[in-house]
Amino acid sequence: MGKLVLYGLLASPPTRSCCLTLKALDLPYEFITINLMVGEHMLPEYLQKNPQHTVPLLQDDELYLWDSHAINAYLVRKYGKDDALYPSELVQRAVVDQRLHYDTSLMFTDSLRELTKRLLFLNESSVPQSKIDGVAAVYDMVENFLGENDYVAGSELTIADFSYVTSIGGLTAYLALDAAKYPAITAWWDRMKQLPYYEQANAEGAAQFEAMVKAKTYTVE
Length: 221
Fold this sequence. Notes:
Blueprint: E1 4-8, H1 13-24, E2 30-33, H2 44-49, E3 57-60, E4 63-66, H3 68-79, H4 90-121, E5 126-127, H5 129-146, H6 159-171, H7 183-193, H8 198-214, E6 219-220
Parallel strand pairs: 1-2, 5-6
Antiparallel strand pairs: 1-3, 3-4
Helix pairs in contact: 1-3, 1-6, 1-8, 4-5, 4-6, 5-7
């Protein structure tokens, strides 16, 4: 196995989803911080590796791969001892993919990234009520996804859970999760926290992100 390098920012939820996958697979890797807050993702040397100027970015020998969902699927398929985290069975994989696409389209992109862009990058002093309502709609949908299941794509842990636990963790910085209203999410989140690598891979960065949001003064209009 060649040397794995993960470029990212610990405060970034997608970066932490990759940290969770790497830890779950027990893969050694080097972490290189790319500080988006000071524009390091726009430096020429980074753009040569990732012209989309996003984090995370995985380097595996000569391969440079970005997008956390693509990275996590690649890691499991190449290095996993089995396919448990990203099942090869058609229907199971389709469900995992659907959950990941929901994160891409609505949970992360339309909700979390949009709110974060407004407050942390554009320094706006208000966010639309519709965006906060969108966070509540995400919670409703994830509660529905979970139902009686232990994990977001069924009875077993998958890479979809790594994306969801980091994205939802970010969203709670904007709208607290009501445990009484969302018992399935609450139980699942507690389950995720019991993973032996959760604290190391996710907790510190999640706290950093929450602190960044809480440091901003803004109104909801």
